[in-house]
């Protein structure tokens, strides 16, 4: 089961709103992350779909709100990544002659998806989730502000 809960509902000890499926939960979560920094939070499905359409349906997408949403890595994926980490540590120590601490810091990157450790970051699953340096894709800042005005 998936729930959307606002800070006000949490303070009151309420459960929040039951959401029908994972895709809707992700949509509501992304919308909440996009709204959180500048106005009152609206976790309704209608608002979430409206905000996400603005975020993801244009020529250039705005996917940073998806950085905060993750799904736990499966046990097999975690085991593979852990094994890769150990192999990388050995490689760095032997091949580069670095200390174990530095080798561990470098090898830790395989345990992350974006900035989440042990979770698949939702942003990484969105096609074209990054801004291009291609000047043809740059859009006037004022137009972008209007486009993402919620």
Kindly describe this structure.
The protein is 45% helix and 11% strand. Helix 4 (75-96) crosses helix 5. It has six helices and six strands; from the N terminus they run E-H-E-H-H-E-H-H-E-E-E-H. It is mainly alpha-helical. The protein has two domains: 2-71 and 122-127 and 135-147, no CATH class; 74-112.
Helix and strand topology:
Elements: E1 2-4, H1 7-11, E2 17-19, H2 22-35, H3 45-56, E3 70-72, H4 75-96, H5 100-107, E4 112-113, E5 116-117, E6 119-121, H6 141-147
Antiparallel strand pairs: 1-2, 3-6, 4-5
Helix pairs in contact: 2-3, 4-5
Which structural class matches the secondary elements?
Answer: mainly alpha
- Alpha-carbon distance between the two ends: 28 Å
Main beta-sheet strand count, sense and barrel state: 2 strands, antiparallel
Radius of gyration: 20 Å
Mean pLDDT: 79
Beta percentage is 5-15%
Question: Helix fraction?
Answer: 40-55%
Q: What is the chain-wise order of helices and strands? A: EHEHHEHHEEEH
How many domains make up the coordinates? 2
Shape: elongated
- Sheet with most strands: strand arrangement: 1-2
Unreliable stretches: 134-150
Number of strands: 6
């Amino acid at each position: 089961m998936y729930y959307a809960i606002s800070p006000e509902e949490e303070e009151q000890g309420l459960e929040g709103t039951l959401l029908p499926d994972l895709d809707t939960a992700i949509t509501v979560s992304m919308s909440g992350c996009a709204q959180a920094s500048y106005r009152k939070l609206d976790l309704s499905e209608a608002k979430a779909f409206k905000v996400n359409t603005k975020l993801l349906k244009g020529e250039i997408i705005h996917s940073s709100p998806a950085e905060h949403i993750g799904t736990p890595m499966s046990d097999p994926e975690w085991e593979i990544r852990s094994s890769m980490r150990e192999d990388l540590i050995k490689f760095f120590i032997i091949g580069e002659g670095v200390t174990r601490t530095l080798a561990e810091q470098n090898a830790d990157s395989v345990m992350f998806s974006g900035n989440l450790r042990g979770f698949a970051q939702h942003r990484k699953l969105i096609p074209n989730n990054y801004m291009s340096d291609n000047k043809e894709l740059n859009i006037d800042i004022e137009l972008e502000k209007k486009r993402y005005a919620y």
